[in-house]
User: Which sequence fits this backbone?
């Protein structure tokens, strides 16, 4: 370990770090044109490099973001991305050194949490991250079903040019992001980056409510069909709506598209009522339910204080945090606040399991059944179930 040095990179080193990341994902280095777009997402002081014998061998970066928590508040979040170690230098502790430096840096900046999207599920738990939201991939055979007449709707859907609509999408996104826990920041650099990834293959629509407010959008891409005719598949990359009626109108548009067979929606919220909207619910197939957002509580006390809790309940919870040991200890959590607690703990769990509870994705009883909780007082489990319940299914649905 002593031969590793981790430091913040200077802007002249950002492209090398990005190419190292692309290489680790088995992708070619960025072109000059692509780099111009990508560079805007590199924030000075937040791009780290790990050096071995003076050579850049690993990198991790973050952007100053935010996370919507139960109760609708948004809190500061380090949005972590670009994590990679050169293939000839893996399993020597470089990532561990980068993660340590990154989490301490975020704590110094007063960010109570860090979030990321993981390439592999085996990497981040050891650093205290847990799966805080999940999402599903759905596939609908539109030739065999349609939206029921009883599904909500009533708005207008119009096509827009995606490359010219980032500001409009952004306004709509901000209107929707406090509706449920788990949403993160999409800043101007994020929207530009998304345009760059999709290029001119992307198409988009905006939905306007009866009162004239734009309250939903979808970005989609026609893919190739089976090669035998004109029929194509439709990939829905992003669909955000401020109400069920807005979401239903957007899906009605997508499922009504001529010359289309399968319509696939990626990273959709688990409670989106597609099956209820369709005349044949079996034509909506869940292809995958997977982890969506990984969350790390960096300052456990501050993070717990930031979300809301239902009235009349409290639990004494012991948290174990081997990577950031200051967090370890007992917390009494209830509607009146969160305090360090010197009395006995009722339940004990590792910080990565607390991340799964924090936005309401998992219940304490489920984690206890999974063996992730030490139970000193069984009666505290149903209380904790109600205390952490968020009222809505959390969802992120944003790649960063
Ligand atoms: C948010 C994002 O950017 S997600 C992108 C993540 N990056 C990638 O997937 C790119 C390809 N992979 C890589 O670049 C590297 O393998 C990394 C960054 C995932 C890991 O870097 P390393 O320097 O090898 O990690 P490090 O040596 O610190 O490993 C720490 C521990 O995690 C384990 N570990 C790390 N990565 C993996 C993995 N992919 N699979 C299994 N175990 C792993 C190590 O075995 C080690 O375990 P130990 O402490 O019991 O010995």
Assistant:
């Amino acid at each position: 370990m002593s031969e590793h040095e981790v430091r913040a990179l200077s802007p002249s080193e950002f492209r090398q770090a990005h190419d190292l990341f692309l290489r680790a994902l088995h992708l070619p280095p960025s072109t000059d044109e692509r780099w111009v777009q990508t560079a805007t997402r590199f924030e000075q002081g937040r791009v780290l490099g790990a050096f071995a014998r003076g050579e850049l061998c690993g990198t991790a970066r973050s952007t100053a973001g935010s996370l919507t928590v139960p109760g609708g508040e948004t809190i500061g979040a380090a949005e972590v991305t670009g994590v990679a170690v050169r293939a000839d230098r893996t399993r020597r502790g470089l990532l561990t050194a980068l993660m340590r430096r990154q989490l301490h840096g975020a704590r110094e900046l007063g960010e109570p949490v860090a979030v990321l999207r993981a390439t592999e599920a085996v990497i981040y738990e050891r650093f205290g991250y847990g799966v805080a939201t999940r999402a599903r991939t759905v596939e609908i055979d539109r030739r065999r079903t349609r939206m029921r007449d009883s599904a909500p709707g009533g708005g207008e859907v119009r096509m827009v040019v995606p490359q010219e609509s980032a500001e409009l999408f952004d306004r709509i996104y901000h209107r929707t992001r406090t509706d449920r826990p788990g949403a993160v920041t999409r800043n101007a650099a994020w929207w530009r980056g998304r345009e760059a990834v999709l290029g001119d293959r992307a198409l988009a629509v905006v939905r306007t409510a009866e009162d004239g407010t734009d309250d939903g959008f979808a970005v989609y891409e026609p893919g190739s069909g089976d090669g035998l005719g004109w029929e194509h598949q439709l990939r829905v990359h992003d669909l955000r709506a401020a109400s069920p009626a807005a979401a239903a109108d957007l899906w009605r548009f997508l499922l009504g598209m001529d010359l289309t067979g399968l319509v696939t929606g990626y990273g959709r919220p688990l409670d989106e009522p597609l099956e209820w909207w369709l005349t044949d619910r079996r034509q909506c197939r869940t292809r995958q339910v997977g982890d969506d957002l990984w969350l790390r509580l960096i300052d456990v006390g501050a993070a717990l204080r930031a979300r809301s809790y239902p009235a009349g309940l409290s639990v004494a919870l012991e948290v174990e945090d081997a990577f950031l040991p200051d967090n370890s200890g007992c917390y009494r959590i209830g509607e009146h606040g969160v305090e360090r607690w010197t009395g006995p703990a009722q339940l004990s769990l590792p910080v990565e399991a607390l991340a799964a509870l924090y936005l309401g994705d998992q219940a304490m009883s489920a984690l206890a059944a999974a063996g992730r909780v030490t139970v000193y007082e069984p009666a505290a489990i149903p209380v904790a179930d109600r205390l952490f319940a968020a009222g809505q299914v959390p969802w992120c649905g944003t790649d960063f």
